[in-house]
Write a structure and sequence with these properties.
Layout: E1 18-20, H1 22-41, H2 44-60, H3 66-79, E2 84-86, H4 88-109, H5 113-133, H6 137-146, H7 159-166
Helix pairs in contact: 1-2, 1-3, 1-5, 2-4, 4-5, 4-6
């Protein structure tokens, strides 16, 4: 049974304008591990599958994103909800990662494996950086173009969620 302290303020599958700040870190860790495994083994299809998983999560929602499900169903219930943040920067970072990894898969199929490995290496390096330090390059790029946004300023965020997070 989940205690009141561990009950999330935001429903991870319905309140999609915000995200628990630790969920993207879990996703970045999974992306880093899978892409590093692809680099070490030479299994280019593993990186392409990670790219397809990102595409599925982006198009069908968090319920179909395996790292998201791992976080929201296994990790978050045990440790509680972290601070809420704007979900747009991590979503943008996922879009960039998906483009790189799917693009790499296409390049491998077309015989341009060297360029494909460079793309996989970029994703592995940036996902590892984000997982280890919390600095997300894709999120930084999003904020550089669109500016900062605080949870309480987000559209369509229930006031109770924004007020509770600000407290």
């Amino acid at each position: 049974m989940t205690s009141t302290a561990h009950r999330p303020l935001a429903d991870p599958y319905r309140d999609t304008t915000v995200i628990d700040a630790r969920a993207p870190r879990t996703n970045q860790t999974v992306v880093a591990l899978v892409t590093i495994a692809a680099l070490l083994t030479g299994w280019w299809w593993l990186a392409a599958l990670m790219g397809l998983q990102l595409v599925i999560g982006l198009t069908l929602g968090r319920r179909y994103c395996l790292p998201c499900v791992l976080y929201f169903e296994v990790i978050q219930p045990r440790f509680g909800e972290g601070p809420l943040e704007d979900s747009r920067p991590p979503r943008f970072a996922n879009i960039v990662g998906a483009c790189f990894l799917v693009g790499a898969g296409v390049l491998f199929v077309l015989g341009a494996g060297v360029v494909g490995w460079v793309l996989v290496g970029v994703v592995a390096a940036l996902a590892s950086l984000a997982a280890a330090t919390g600095f997300c390059t894709g999120c930084w790029m999003y904020r550089l173009v669109n500016g900062e946004c605080e949870v309480c300023d987000l559209p369509n965020v229930p006031r109770a969620i924004a007020d509770a997070d600000a407290a």
